[in-house]
Amino acid sequence: MSSRNESLQIFVDAAFVAFDQFAKAPEARRSVRQIFAALERPGIARAGQASRLPVCAHLDMALSNDTSYPSLTRLIEGFKGIEPMLEWARRTKYDHTASDNFVDGHANAMIIGPGGLEERSDLWFGVTLMAPHVRYTDHDHAPEEVYLVLSEGEFQQGEGDWFSPGVGGSFYNIPGIRHAMRSLDTPLFAFWILLAERPH
């Protein structure tokens, strides 16, 4: 049985409490329980190529939101403990729906999953950071997904209207739905978890 990096374990524990508190929809709650049950078994520890992109200059501001929820404060503190180990990267596939400043205005980091601090294929746990006034490209994927948002910002699912979850907002993307996000006057910061492989 492999063991998990202590800082990463602190983050995972805080993330479970936060996702469990804020994920309200039954499908989201089921997905959260399945993902964090799987996370009780550590994946393969990986020495990542820790690196930041220019947009990470907005990270301090994104992490300074007054959450007023102890669970979100612990989650942010836990994230600060692992962020120096993360490899931030740009999304390489995008289309005309992305804003002109998208390429340099966003970054994603895989925390656990392919290329993350723990290599595993059954789930993805990642984070997205966007500079102000950036629209993320429309995208979709087969796995269902649960978001936990720690900033202001707007999101869209399918042909629906843009909506603002707010700090501590959580929502569920059904498998295959097209979705997007956009930042407003402040940086957007959100965690996302996907169950890449259905449990048998």
Care to describe what's here?
The protein has 200 residues and is of the alpha+beta class. It contains 5 helices and 10 strands; from the N terminus they run ααβααβαββββββββ. It has helices at 6-22, 26-38, 59-62, 70-82, 102-105, and strands at 44-45, 88-89, 106-112, 118-119, 123-130, 145-149, 154-157, 170-173, 179-182, 188-195. A 6-stranded antiparallel sheet has the order 2-3-5-10-6-8. Strands 1-4 form a two-stranded antiparallel sheet.
A few lines on this structure:
The protein is α+β, with helices and mostly antiparallel strands. The chain is built from 5 helices and 10 strands.
H and E string? HHEHHEHEEEEEEEE
Q: Could you report the average pLDDT, rounded to the nearest whole number? A: 93
Structural class: alpha+beta
Shape: globular
- In quaternary terms, these chains amount to single chain
Largest sheet: 6 strands, antiparallel
Distance between the termini: 21 Å
Number of helices: 5
Share of residues in helices = 25-40%
Tell me what portion of residues adopts beta-strand conformation: 15-25%
Strand order of the largest sheet: 2-3-5-10-6-8
Low-pLDDT residue intervals, each spanning 5 or more residues: none
The count of strands amounts to 10
Q: Nearest-angstrom radius of gyration?
A: 16 Å
Fold blueprint:
Blueprint: H1 6-22, H2 26-38, E1 44-45, H3 59-62, H4 70-82, E2 88-89, H5 102-105, E3 106-112, E4 118-119, E5 123-130, E6 145-149, E7 154-157, E8 170-173, E9 179-182, E10 188-195
Antiparallel strand pairs: 1-4, 2-3, 3-5, 5-10, 6-8, 6-10, 7-9
Helix pairs in contact: 1-2, 1-4
